[in-house]
Each structure stands twice: as structure tokens, then as C-alpha cells.
Amino acid sequence: MDIKDIARPLDGASISAFLKSLPAKPLLLGLGEARHFVQELGEVRNEIFRHLVEHEGYRSFAIESDCLMGLVVNDYLATGEGTLDDVMERGFSHNFGASPANRELVRWMRTYNEEHDEKLRFFGFDGPLEYWAASPRQALTGLYDLLNGAVVTRETLDTLLGPDDRWSNEATAMDPSLSIGQSADAQRLRLIADDLVSLLDTQAPGLGAEDRELAALYGRTAVGLLRYHYWMADASPARWTRLSALRAAMMAANLRAIAEHGPALVFSSNLHLQRNKSFMSFGDQTLEWWSAGALVGTKLGDRYAFLATALGTVGVDDPPADTAEGVLSTLPWDHSLIDARRLAEAVTKPAKRVSQDFAYFPLDPAQLDMIDGVVFLRKALV
């Protein structure tokens, strides 16, 4: 089989043809990253999203960034209040606000909203997490205020939360003894969070649609953060596997909520959006957990689709000819869209690419049949 028979240059026509080839129109279209902070990939993503908005009815964009910080970006898109500089600083985690492609995306989405009645929405779908977790204050107090309390007094809630820096201590990532996640205060806050979420279930009809959505976000974030903090304090060998799984579960819960506004383009690491289990070396351990894509795919079925990205030359590193990336590098286009399942048939017994760049995740040829398509960039500057 000629590799060109299962690939097309990446453009609007190939994107629409890819969507038509799927068994159902996806509520969530995942576009994975082989590596964060590849500017050209961000630019390609923006082109794909613009086409999806203008020709395929997409109205939402979601990125692997703090779900609460994402509210800042969405408010700016809706109102235009504030400055773009401030939004990029306060609306993204993981340093994603420094990306020129992300800045251009937010600018374009705001301009679109100024010119159209049907508005675009922006979501972060990660928890308020790095390798450690943020304070649950914003989520807990936000939910508390929307429900007018009733579970405990505000003073009790503030006392139990205490100073935010005792929650957001980065050193807890490597030293569980520094975490307060299993303290008496944290344990009581978990019960309070559970009671507040239960209260939301009983009071939801009295809230407007926007407040219900915001309260649900606060509720699942508060519960998820307190769970995460609990396991931050765990000293067993299972600690990082459990934390990785909890993060994936928080992502998946946010994605399911975003799907209710679908269809949406979701941009994140291939590792998070893939349908198969994730594996990652961590010290002398190999962590293994079900990815957010696998979790949300279980719920959405054919309404979830996944486009992985793959890179040819990364910096000065050319792919070996017997890898999937090496085969794809023979395509005549700088940017290509490939039918991944047919690629699995065309590339027989490929080797897995090995990279010295720890931030780059090459395609796993054994998993090609679990990917719907591959967006391939012949060269990537890092």
C-alpha cells in the first residue's frame, strides 16, 4: 500500500472529509500534542479550529489548563472586559499563557464573538494541578456562596481552609509528609464538600443555568482536589499511580461537562487524550493509568474521536526510517492528515521511535488501531 493513498494534505477539505468518515459526529474531537510548546503545532491547531467553527458548527475550545483559570478567558470572550495581556497571565496554567499561538487563539475567538450572535466558549479541563495541588478555597467557597451556605458557617469553612500556602506547597510533590491532605481539617473539608455537592443536587432548580453550571464545576473541582490532596499525603508505592489516575478522572469529568455544549475541539497531550492506558517512567517506577480520553471515550463512545499528532524531524533529530514517523516523513506535504487505522495496516512491524527529549512522546505503533487519525508535521522547532 502506498502511504499517499491513506493521507491527504492537511486543509479544510481533509478535515471535513475526516469528520464525515467517522461513524458519528463527535461531541468531543481530541487533538493530541506529541510535545508541548511546539509553536507550529499551535498554529496548525488554530487553523483546524477556525475551520471547525466556520464550516462544521463547533463553538467550544478546551485546553489542558486549569479549569478555574479558564473561567477568566471565557469571561473575556463573552464581555471583552480587561486586557488580553491580563487574560493570558491569569487565564492559563502550565505557562500556556506565554504561547503566541494561544494568545492568537484567544484574540481570534474574542473577535469572532464581537462579530457573531452565536458565541464561542473557552474551557480549561485540567484540575488546578501541577505535580502538586492548589488550595481548594476557590472551589469550596465559590460553591458555598452560590448555595448560600447552610452546611457550615463561612467562618468555620475559612478556619478549616487556613492559609492557602499550606495547601500549595510545591515540596509536597516529592515529600508526602509535608502534605496536609490527611489532616483532621482536610478530612472534615472532604465531608463538607460532599455535603455541598449533595445540597447542589437538591437546590439546582432554584439556580439559573449559568450558576448551575458554575456550581457543578466548583463542586467536582473541590471534591477532586481534596481527593488529590489526600493521596499527596500517602507514602506508599502506589502514590503517583493513584495521583495520575485521579488527575485523569478530573479531566474526564470536565470533558463530559464540556460535551454538553458540544461539539468542541479538545487540545492536550496525546498521553491524556489517547483511548488506551497511559504509561510513564517516573524514577524507578513505570506509572500506569487509564487516560482521560479512555475514560471519556467509555461514556461517549462514537461521539468521542481522537486525532493524535506526530512529528518528523524534531529540532535536529530525524526519525529512523523504520518508525511510523519515518514512514510518514516520506509524504510530500509539510502538514498531513492520515487515516490511522489504515496506517496500522500499511506500516507492518514498525519500530517505536526513541527520543532523548523527555517532553516528546512519539507514536506508539502498537496503538495505531485505537487512533482515528494522525496529524503529521514534517518538521518541528523546539
Number of strands: 10
Number of helical regions? 14
Overall number of structural domains = 2
CATH class of the largest domain: Alpha Beta
What spatial form do the alpha-carbon principal axes imply?
A: globular
CATH topology of the largest domain, by name, is Rossmann fold
Distance between the termini: 33 Å
- How would you name the oligomeric state of the polypeptide chains in this document? single chain
| CATH architecture grouping of the largest domain | 3-Layer(aba) Sandwich
The main sheet orders its strands as: 1-9-10-8-2-5-3-4
Helical/strand content category: alpha/beta
What order do the SSEs take from the amino end to the carboxyl end, as H and E? EHEHEHHHEHHHHHEHEEHEHEHE
What ranges have pLDDT less than 50 throughout 5 or more consecutive residues? none
Estimated radius of gyration = 21 Å
For the residues shown, what is the average pLDDT? 95
Description:
This protein is of the alpha/beta class and 382 residues long. It folds into two domains: 3-129 and 251-380, Rossmann fold; 137-239, no CATH class. The protein has helices at 12-21, 39-56, 70-79, 84-90, 100-115, 137-146, 154-161, 184-203, 209-232, 239-259, 270-273, 292-300, 324-328, 340-346, and strands spanning 7-9, 28-33, 60-66, 121-126, 264-269, 277-282, 285-290, 304-314, 335-339, 373-380. The protein has an eight-stranded mixed beta sheet with strand order 1-9-10-8-2-5-3-4, with helices on both faces. A two-stranded antiparallel sheet has the order 6-7. A hairpin with a 2-residue loop joins β6 (277-282) and β7 (285-290). It starts with 6 loop residues before the first strand and ends with a strand.
